Amino acid sequence: xxxxxxxxxxxxxxxxxxxxxGDHVEVIEKKDGNFVIVLADGLGSGVKASxxxxxxxxxxxxxxxxxxxxxxxxxxxxxxxxxDKVREVAYSTFTIINMKxxxxxxxxxxxxxxxxxxxxxxxxxxxxxxxxIGGKTIYQSEIRLREGDVFIAMSDGCPHAGIGISxxxxxxxxxxxxxxxxxxxxxxxxxxxxxMLVDECxxxxxxxxxxxxxxxxxxxxxxxxxxxxxxxxxxxxxxxxMMSLFFSKEGKHIVCGGTTSTIAAKWLGKPLKxxxxxxxKDIPPIAEIEGVDLVTEGVITISKxxxxxxxxxxxxxxxxxxxxxNDAAALISRMLFEEATDINFYVGRxxxxxxxxxxxxxxxxxxxxxxxxxxxxxxxxxxxxxxSYF
Length: 390
What we know:
The protein is an alpha+beta fold. It has 2 domains: 4-222, PPM-type phosphatase domain (Phosphatase 2c, domain 1), CATH 3.60.40; 225-389, no CATH class. Helices cover 32% and strands 27% of the residues. 45% of the residues are buried.
């Protein structure tokens, strides 16, 4: 999609009293760098539904990513899914969003609520072609992508929310579309949008969901590079090379660590100023260097960012903290989670004895563990990551 990319986020809640979710979202990155997203909803709830939806989403996403026709995908699902002994059917509904390298999104929908498509601040209708495959009615659509387009896929637990509690007939799709339309215009991330939708469903259910409910949001946006410098190089002679490569890169620049900040300031020939008032509870204060977008402490701050990142890709319960706070960890989180699509890490291998775990070999730096955990979480968010060590 050239300079455009797909930001993907989803969240689920379980049927009240169930340990497993009967919905499943599977995302596969294709060879061309684009994605196949499948949201499947298994029959019923609990273990059986979880098995049905997991098998369906994994099989279909794998086959679609290999450009296998939808007819063959449906046939494979029919032959593979276990049959429910009570209902005597093997049943899982699904929604497929296939992001193609041509800049087109293909929607393939079977029995889930129809995907909500928002463009230019309004809910937009889109053409659907009806297919009959193996006795199943499948709807297929193709939409030429533009920056700012948002796709909202969901299981039927979303429009069923509030039946007999807040609404007589549930939360209608058109009402969900209006609700999400207002949130999309604010500029929230795909993950935050999906979280806010599912949290509202949970509220309408009185926090005791009568069905599994899942929302998956895909947001089309321009690629935004970001660069983060963390730690001094193991060889002091590499400082100039590390700084030159870091500051020559397009995009915003984040410098983390006291020694690292000092080196960056010296290389730029600018003073390093610390704003003591910017500290917050256990997060050290922010510093300033002319020519750098954000300067922070290292290990403590990045550890907090990792806490936010790992929560963000799971329950996303902490998003209000990093979304609204202005401490160093919250600022880094917003830059990495919301702004950036392509993130370049420049990591110094110099070992700080204060950061060593006595149970680990001395050569194994806590800093390396932090970088690994953070980059893994960012990859799950769909970010393109490159790490350079010095």
